[in-house]
Structure formats: C-alpha cells, structure tokens
Amino acid sequence: MRRFFACIALIVLLAPGTFLRTDIPSRDDSQTISLVPVTLNPLQPLQKKVGALEFVVGWELRSSNDNFGGISSMLVMPGSRIVALSDGGYLFSFGVGPKNANQTPVMRDFIAPLPQNVAIDDDKATRDSESLVRDPVNGRYWVGFEDSNGIARYDPALTRREVFRVPQQMRDWPDNGGPEAMVLLGTGAFLVFAEDAEVSGDQAEDGLTEAFMFRGDPLDPATQAVKFSYRAPKGYNITDATLLPDGRLILLHRRFNVLEGVSARISIADPADIVANSVFEGEVIAAIDPPLSVDNMEAIAVTREDDDIMVWLASDDNFNSIQRSLLMKFKLLLGDVDGKINKAGGFAPSLKSLEDDYKSICYQAVISIT
Questions:
Q1: Nearest to residue 92, comparing CAs of 115, 69, 126?
Q2: Residue 13 backbone dihedrals phi, psi, to 5 degrees
Q3: Are 218 and 188 in contact (CB under 8 A)?
Q4: Does the global pTM surpass 0.85?
Q5: How far apart (Å, rounded) are the C-alpha atoms in residues 91 and 360?
Q6: Which H or E element spans position 109?
Q7: 35-66, pLDDT tens digit by residue?
C-alpha cells in the first residue's frame, strides 16, 4: 500500500501543470554586445573584392539579451557608431572602434525598445519595424512598420513617438509586405518601397512591386505622392536602401533558395529617373553568394572617410540559432561603379565630382541615446 501511494504521489508531482516544475529562466536584459571577426570568404581569407565593393572588416554580432537580433535597418554615425533597428521594435547602439581597424571594442552598448503608444504597445503590427531614416535638419526619425503598413515619427532623442499613421496610399499593401525600405532624399521627398505589394492592372509583371515618392512628410495627409513600380534583380526582394553622397540610391536585396541558401545583390539607381506609373530599377554592382559570408541581408548604410565611400551591410538572423547577425564594411570602388554603369548606358554624375562640403544624410545623423 505504501508503494501504491508513493507511486501516485510521484505521478501527481511529475504531471504537467501540477506542483513540480522546472524554474522559468529569468529574462536576460543584458546590454552587452560582442563582435567576433569574420572574413569575406572563409574558404579564401585573402579575397577582398566582390563586384564594385572591397571588403574592409566584418563581424558577427552576439548578445545574450533576449531581444537582440532581427536587424532590419541601420544608421552609421561619425566614429563608426552603429544604430540598428530590429524587426521586433528594438534599437541597438554600439561603436566598433577606429576607422578601418580590425578591432572589436564595443563602446557604450545600448539595447532598448522603440518608444511606443501604450494603447498599441502589445500589437505586433506596430512592432514589426523594418525601415529607418533621419532628417539631419530637424533631427527627427521616421520608422516604417511592415505588418501594419504604417509609419511613425519620433523626436530627435528617440524617446517619444510623435505620430503613427498608415498613409492612404499604402493601406492596401499586404500584411508582412509593407514598407521594407525608406529613403529621405535631399529634396525632402520620401521614397517608400514595399517588399511584396505586387503591381496590378495593366502594368502587372512578375518581380514588380509598388513604391511611392511622397513630396514631403508621408505622415501629413496633405502630402502628395507619386506611385511607381520597382523592379528588383530577378528572384530578389528589396530589403533596404539609402543615399550615396551624390544623391543616387544604393539598394540592398536578398534571396533565399532551398538549394543555394541565402544571397544578396547591391544595386545603384538614380531617383531622378523615377516617373509616375513607370518602372524604376537599378544596376547591380555586387553579388554576394556563398561561400562568401552572407546571411539574410536587410540593412545598408553609407558613410564617408576622407575621399572614400564606405558601404555597411547587416543581416537579420530571424532570431534563429543557425543564422547570424553579420555587420560588414566595404569600400565602394568608384571607378568600377561608374565604369560599369556608364558602359550600360546609365547615368551621371560620377561620385568623384562631389562637392567637398556635401555630406550624406546617414553620415550627418547624430543620435542622442544615453
């Protein structure tokens, strides 16, 4: 009888939902970000060039913080300080040391959620942040949210959300296919690219997605917008875009193929070529395929170092242990870029003809997170 009651007691204690449970692990809010160096090509460590890009330095980013990962957009500040945005509504900020140095000091790490309105704080559609721009004139930030097709504007300190709105032009974009890339042009116009909003009607074509050029703040209902179609490289989706110092766009695209894995394409296009209800596309300048270090590349930024243009790429690990959060820095090979584009019957001016006092929007950005 004693054995009978002992067995019953053991069954009760071990049964799910009863008295004996494994302790729930505590939440990890660590603010530490570590950087592990990576090469461009693990099989050929001396390889530096891929298309019109020359590899400078790269890292795999790691943190034990539960919310770290999912990088979807970023800015690079003077002094190589990174401000990255995740598709979970989090900001990551850290520095990577002196320019061109293959060092891994991380300075003033910062991991925190975007400030949001309490009423919609638990709505995933308002946390799927995919695109980030900053106006260097007034210091404000705009963030695009993919699931809701909405855009939010934040104060210069990124401590308060001023307004959140779904522009009328974007309301029919599909869930999880909304504003994947956003660019603020020097004219004050905003470009917003959908990831999966396919073009319909007479202009329907495989590979074309919708995009808009807003003539001002897209959160102002009075702002007029020009609709156009974007053609990404075949088989790829746009994931981010930003300005080069001469006003052209540099655009990032990714593809996942079961047989070939992940790959990325970087292209350059001139926003002056955007025409209402017409197709806009760029010229591919670099193809990043395995065995090169590549993952789900979703973020691109541009900085200037003396006469050199630096292109930064980062990847979204999808919070998956078999993927990586990569941060890679390349020098843009100006002669290769302009020679390739001009040969293809492309556009001017050359990056070499920049005014000395011109600075790109990303390079001017200064963030005040403390």
A1: 69
A2: -70, -35
A3: no
A4: no
A5: 22
A6: strand 107-113
A7: 899 999 999 999 999 999 999 999 999 988 88
